[in-house]
Amino acid sequence: MYQLTDVSKLYRKGRAEVNALRRVTLTVEDGEFLTIQGPTGSGKTTLLLLMGALDRPTSGSLILDGQETSKLGEGRLGQLRARTLGFVFQNYNLMPTLSAAENVQAALVPLGIGGDEARRRSMEALEGVGLGDRAAHFPAELSGGEQQRVAIARALVKQPRVLLADEPTGNLDEGTRSEIMSLLQTVRANRELTLVIATHDSKVARQAPRTAMVNRGQLTLKKNPLKGQTAEALETS
Amino acid sequence: MYFTYLWRELRRRRRQASLVAIGLAVGVGLVVTVAAASSGVNAAQGQVLHSLYGVGTDLTVTKAPTFGSGGPFTFGGPPTGARPTSISGQHVSSSPGLAVIPTADVDKIARLKGVSDAAGGLALNDFTFTGQFQPGSGFAPGSPPSGSATGSKTSFRANAFTIQGVAISAPGLGPLSGASVSSGSYFSGSDTNSDVALVDSAYARQEGLKVGSEVTISSTPYKVIGIVTPASGSSGSDVYVPLARAQALAGDKDDVNAIYVEAADNSAIGSVKSEIDKTIPSLTVTTAADLASQVSSSLGTASSLASSLGKWLAAIVLVVAFALAAMLTLSSVSGRVREFGTLKALGWRSRRIVAQIVGEGLVQGVIGAAVGVGLGFLGAFLVERVGGTVKVPVGATTAAHFPAAGAGSGAFGGGRPGFLHDLGAAAHTVTVHLTTPISWDVVGLAILLALAGGLLAGAIGGWRVARLRPADALRRVE
Fold first, then answer.
1. Bridging pattern class, strands B153-166 and B239-242
2. Within a domain: residue B292?
3. Does B466 map to a domain?
4. Do B203 and B318 share a domain, yes or no?
5. Do B172 and B315 fall within a single domain?
6. Chains A, B: CB contacts under 8 A, how many?
7. Are the CB atoms for B331 and B16 separated by under 8 Å?
8. Do the chains contact at B346 and A107, CB–CB below 8 Å?
């Protein structure tokens, strides 16, 4: 799904330059579950934004689903985001003036799907995350966990091939965090999605077979032990 | 989704949206009110002007009198004597301040390029004087006083009215055009040389005249065939007679003292004036616009206020409203940067998001337009109520100095000079009710201005969004 080769991202803020990513090389297979871990300011969000076609590398090559994103115009990138990519944010980023169902339908607008079809699909998506009975509620009337479920439903309603989540459990308590992670993994398994989660939480990071460790813009890969597998066994595997 | 999102966003920011709409509404309301007031004042001026020169007259041509012109004013009266003596006289003269113009000039002007029609008119004054004079005892002109002397006693009565000679062949020109005949009938073609008259309704009431009555002009009875009210609703002249009869009264059948001209269209008025000036330089040409500056200062001031100050005020308020709308929209967009970044992350194209913001601006413009038109109607109503009725003095106001009645009249001491009557030709008062007509063109323009303001605000906000990079937007901490 993804092939990143020597990808760098440089931000200019006034006279200061920030190397958010330095020559990152990474391959993500179709259907893979990958976590990206690093402290705040390490570059993990930058990496996720590049993978989400929301930004372009300063240098290097990023191939998404066989397309070099740095060579695509804004229109094509928009189509990629509309059809292929689903995004979940730390702060949920729901539209406060739209109900849960309407927030989910917003993801279908770029696909030209509206009316009854959009309503049907959004209800299905909400039921899939266990919020079928909260469709008419507005974000202010939902808990943090419920809002994140709506955000997940919104990301999934368009049947994407990749789901990118930036600190999806960052604002949630422990119990809710587990629920959300469980939901994401279930969804990934059911739909054969490529799931990439950026997190600073090592417990979350360890749930993926591989973790891309990002520190000061540089990336190293780490294999995580499978359930029941010891670290030594992982070393020798 | 489009209208749902649009309406919900406006409701969420209702205070901001209301400010924008109110700003546009005030601007629009001012435009409508100022335009209505300006139209009303112009209409009032038009009424005043039409009272002088009649509906349909675009230019008037007159001639200033030269010094010393005008005939002597004499009274017929008995020679001096010891017994009381009766004195009476009637004098018809050209209106003071207007010299005669040959009727040939009327035809000359009618043939000029840009002239649709021209007609002559003759304004006269009729002055009637009756009285008794009893000279004092011991007094005889030319004799030295003897014995005791007692003072002389006099009692006089004077009456004056104005006469207008009307060109019957051109009813659409002159002071009677647009007049309504409340009883009787207008002149017919066969009345050209008849001793018939139309009487102004106010004068008729004052003198107890009606259709069939007689008005004596220069010892000749004129039959009243109609009672008229000029278009302005107030008096132009007291009595109207056919032009030929007026010329006969003045003893001058080849002259008029005013020419009323109708231009082919409004745009030709200036060129017609130039043509007349060039063709007959001795004449004075006055357009409605020229006269407007001489008419009552109250209307002139009101007109200036409405047309210049009012328009500037409306323009300034509109600019401020537009700027306010743009600033508030920009502020709103800045507060929704993360939201727009999320929409872009969902795959929304920039133009779709821009369309959302422009739509929000447009709705605010529509609300502003609706409220503004209402405010405009209210403002126009208030201006009309406050403006009320205006009495405008117009007409020939120059004092007419009649020569001393000394010639041959012993009753006045053998031609004692200095006995002057200042007969200012009575200033007519035109009563005008100030209206504030609202034209649908102005309402349409005002609505367009409000919509333009809303669109402009939306476009500025949309431009801001279009330049937004999704990654930067999503990083924004709100």
1. parallel
2. no
3. yes
4. no
5. no
6. 78
7. yes
8. yes
Q: Do A105 and B9 touch (CB under 8 A)?
A: no
pLDDT tens-place values along chain A, 237 residues long: 888 889 998 887 778 888 888 899 999 988 899 999 988 888 888 899 999 888 888 889 899 888 888 888 888 888 888 999 999 988 889 999 999 999 999 999 999 998 899 999 999 999 988 899 999 999 999 998 899 999 999 999 999 999 999 888 887 888 888 888 888 888 888 888 899 999 888 888 888 899 999 988 888 888 887 654 444 444 444
Instruction: Judge: B471–A54 Cβ closer than 8 Å, yes or no.
Output: yes
Domain count, chain B: 2
Q: What is the DSSP letter of B306?
A: I
B138 and B191 fall within a common domain: yes
Judge contact between A7 and A205, C-beta under 8 A: no
| Contact call for B348 and A49, based on CB within 8 A | no
Is the sign of the CA dihedral B282, B283, B286, B291 positive or negative?
Answer: positive
Do both B349 and B310 map to the same domain? yes
| pLDDT 10s digits, B118-148 | 999 999 988 877 776 666 554 444 445 444 5
pTM of the model: 0.63
Q: Residue A68, class by beta-carbon neighbours within 10 Å (0-12 exposed, 13-18 middle, 19+ buried)?
A: exposed
User: B356 and B241, same structural domain?
Assistant: no
* Cα A133 to the center of its chain, rounded Å: 26
Assigned domain for B421 exists: no
Helix (H, G, I), strand (E, B) or coil at A6: strand
Asked if residue B287 lies in contact with residue B59, where contact means CB atoms within 8 angstroms, the answer is yes
Cβ-based contacts of B474 with chain A (< 8 Å): 49, 54, 89, 93
CA distance B181 to A137: 76
One domain, residues B126 and B257: yes
CA distances from B469 to A55, B248, B439 (A): 8, 93, 48
B361: in domain: yes
B91 and B133 fall within a common domain:
yes
The answer to whether B466 contacts chain A (CB < 8 Å) is no
Minimal-distance CA residue of chain A relative to B475: A45
Distance, CA of A144 to CA of A146 (rounded, Å): 5
Contact criterion met (CB < 8 Å) for A55 and B471: yes
C-alpha B478/C-alpha B473 separation (Å) is 10
Quick one: A165 exposed, middle or buried, by C-beta within 10 A (0-12, 13-18, 19+)?
Answer: buried
| Token pair recorded at residue A82 | 């509309």
Say if CB B394 and CB B44 are below 8 A apart: no
| Phi, psi of B464, rounded to the nearest 5 degrees | -60, -40
DSSP string, A87-107: EE-TT----TTS-HHHHHHHT
- Asked if B155 and B218 sit in the same domain, the reply is yes
CA distance B217 to B163: 9
Q: Helices marked H in A142-230 — which ranges?
A: 144-156, 174-191, 202-205
Give me the count of residues in chain B: 478
Mutate: best of A54, A70, A98, partner B, most B CBs <10 A:
A54
Closest CA to B217 of B322, B355, B92: B92
Q: Choose among B5, B9, B347: nearest Cβ to A110.
A: B347
Per the structure, the complete domain to which residue B173 belongs is given by 64-142+151-282
- Determine, for residues B346 and A111 on separate chains, whether the beta-carbon distance falls below 8 Å: no
CB–CB of A198/A89 below 8 Å?
Answer: no
